[in-house]
Amino acid sequence: SALPEKKMVFKGLTVNKEDMNKLMLTPQIHYPLPGGSALITFEEAKVAQRIIELREHTVDLSCGEKLEEPDRCRVRVQAVPVDILLPSALEVRLTQSSSSILVSGLPSLDISKDALLDKLELFFSKTKNGGSEVESVEFLDDSGQVVLTFTKDGVAERLIEKGRTQVLIGKGKYEVKISPCMSGDVANLQLQPSRCPRTVLLLGIPDVLSEEAMSDTLEIHFQKASRGGGEVDALAYVPAGRTGVAMFVED
After folding, report:
1. DSSP character at residue 155
2. Where are the domains of the chain?
3. In the 8-state DSSP scheme, what is residue 122?
4. Sign of CA dihedral 53, 58, 62, 65
5. 215-225: buried (b, 16+ CB within 10 Å) or exposed (e) per residue?
6. Which residue among 3, 123, 151, 247 has the highest number of C-beta atoms inside a 10 angstrom radius?
7. What is the SS3 assignment for 166-225?
8. Are 90 and 25 in contact (CB under 8 A)?
9. pTM for the complete prediction?
C-alpha cells in the first residue's frame, strides 16, 4: 500500500508465489572493439566453434571476381572467442530517506513541468498542508513522479503516514499519493565468465578496402561451408584507426 501509484497494463504471465521476490537480471554488455577487427555472429553455435578452432583464416579480397593467381589479393585474420563477464549474484541495499517523499498519481494538466513543480513546492512548503520548507524538488521522467526533499527531519515521516492528500493546483483539487523515497545501492555483485556461443571476434584486418566492401568480403568468406563457415546472422567491422563498442543482449 505504500508503493507509488502507476497505471499499468499487464501483458505477462503469472508466476508461482515463491518466485515473486526474485529479481530478474537482463544483461546488456558493452564490449569495446579495437580498430582492424570485426564481430561475426553465426546462426549456429557449432559454426562459430569451428571457425575458432581453425584459428587463422586466409580471406580472398577479390570479392568473387575471377582473377589470375598472381593478381589475387589475400589477407590473414585471426579468429578468437568472445569472453564476457555476466552477473551471477546481486545484492541491493535499500535505504529510506528521512527527509524526502515520493509523490505519485499526479494529474495530467495542460501546464509545463516547471509550473507543476512550482505548485507542488508551494503546496508542500506550507505547514497547514503538513509540509515545511522545501529544500529541492525533482521530476522523475521515467515514472512521472516527483521527489520532494524537506530541510527539516520528521516532515516526510508525517506526510508518509498520511498517505494521501488533496493538492490545490490552479482552480482544481487533485488527490495524490505520498510514499517513502527509497534509494538502492549495490552491496554485492558477483560476476562469472561466459563465452558467447555464436559470436567470433576477428583480429588483424588490414585497412585495404572500404568499410562496406570489407564487411561484404568477410561475410561472403565466412558463410561458405567449404571454408568452415555457415549462415551469418550479423557482422560488424571496425576499420583500422577507429574504435567501436558492441552491445550484447540476452540470446
Report:
1. H
2. 28-88+190-249, 91-187
3. H
4. negative
5. bbbbbbbbbee
6. 123
7. EEEECCEEEEEEEEEEEEEEEEEEEEEEEEEEEEEEEECCCCCCCHHHHHHHHHHHHCCH
8. yes
9. 0.59
- Spatial contact of 178 and 158, defined as CB atoms under 8 Å apart: no
Please say if the pLDDT value at position 102 is more than 70. yes
Predicted confidence (pLDDT) per residue in 231-240, tens digit? 999 999 999 9
Strands of the chain, DSSP E: 28-33, 37-42, 56-60, 74-104, 134-140, 145-150, 164-169, 172-203, 232-238, 244-249
| Three-class DSSP category at 46 | helix
Residue 72 reports pLDDT greater than 90? no
Instruction: Answer yes or no: are the C-beta atoms of 175 and 165 closer than 8 Å.
Output: yes
* Residue pair 208/60 in contact by the 8 Å Cβ criterion: no
Among 193, 191, 235, CA closest to 212? 235
**Helical segments of 14-63, H only:** 45-54
CATH code for the structural domain at 91-187: 3.30.70.330
